[in-house]
Amino acid sequence: MKNLYVHIGFPRTATKTLQLRLFKEHNDLNYLGRFPDRVPSHNPTISRILSYDEEEFTKNFDNLSREIKNLPLSLNKTNLISDEFFLLRDLLHQKTSIKVSIQRLKKLCEINNINLKIIYSVRNQTDIISSLFTVTFLSSLKTDCEKIISAVNGLETDTYTRNFLKGFDYNQLHYTLSEIVGSNNLSVVFYEKLSITKDEYYKEISDLLSLSNSETSKLLDYKRIHLSSDQIRNQIELSTKSQLIFYQIKKLNFKKIFNRNFMLKLVTFFKKKIFSNVKIDKKKVIENNLILNNALTEFKKNNNLIKDYFLKSNTEFFKKNKVNADIKKFYL
Question: Phi, psi at residue 7, to the nearest 5°?
Fold first, then answer.
């Protein structure tokens, strides 16, 4: 029986860094997606599992089973799929619950004699909610800071906000996943280890996936990508033309090549020749940045309130997942 490891996120836990820097590059991995730098980025079979409603899934079950059977699984390398949309479809889009999507995948794997193993990464709720808000409040997030704070304060709010917060109940998630795949096939990685003891983080990832740790360390020992600050400067709704251009230049590493005077001339050139048709609503940009900054201030001010909201769940979660006190202090 072949093993198939599926890493399901969470988003904002260095998931894209892992996907782009480690998973698709490591010689010990047979990586089957997601590839955030490609279009389409998702494994097509996983996309269908996540997007189908129950009727569509039942109707297309045989086709999906054939697709799973025909996955190019390796006998010599660790087979891995990584896709944070397993969790995003649940807590953010609220279309397909994590329970349903993993049950579907488990059933398809069982029929094809494939052992499904789940890995998920967590980050303390105060930080992950704030970070996810930053990159989604103008797009797919259907709630706001005020509603989120009201909900953690025990006040009545809408169903979407309640379900959004429920998505960060790690103890319930762990229970749900262990019921489906079994505790022996379930692993959790703590994002905080990356900043506290990165070598331990690298080794843990390597051990989980049977990878050469020296290669893992070499591939990951660079600046993390997909940071919130970079994402903000890539959004028209939150940036001026100059900020958009500076972000693109930064990506190309021109700062290491050209002096500041040349950079300013280059920005002027981009404005006139390349971004001339891009319409920036400066008033809206200021307004959106004000909303974001106020929200981040509120999240920080209510840090302890958010921590208390998840305290009972996190306490139970750590009974199942043993970590040192340096990690626990972020959660309890």
Answer: -95, 120
From residue 239, how far is each of 24, 153, 228 by CA, in Å? 31, 33, 13
Reported for 299-302, long-range contacts at CB under 8 A and 24+ positions apart, including other chains, are: 299/126, 299/129, 299/130, 299/133, 299/145, 299/149, 300/130, 302/149, 302/152, 302/153
Tens digits of residue pLDDT in 88-147: 999 999 999 999 999 999 999 999 999 999 999 999 999 999 999 999 999 999 999 999
Chain-wide mean pLDDT for the chain? 90
Element (H, E) at 166: helix 159-166
With beta carbons less than 8 A apart as the criterion, state whether 3 and 79 touch. Answer: yes
Token reading at 258? 């050209």
What the chain holds in terms of domains, given with CATH numbers, is: 2-123+168-222+313-328 (3.40.50)
* Alpha-carbon dihedral angle through residues 15, 20, 23, 24, given to the nearest 10 degrees: 150
Cβ(315)–Cβ(109) below 8 Å: no
CB 65, CB 111: distance < 8 Å: yes
- Which sign, positive or negative, has the C-alpha torsion 205, 210, 214, 216? negative
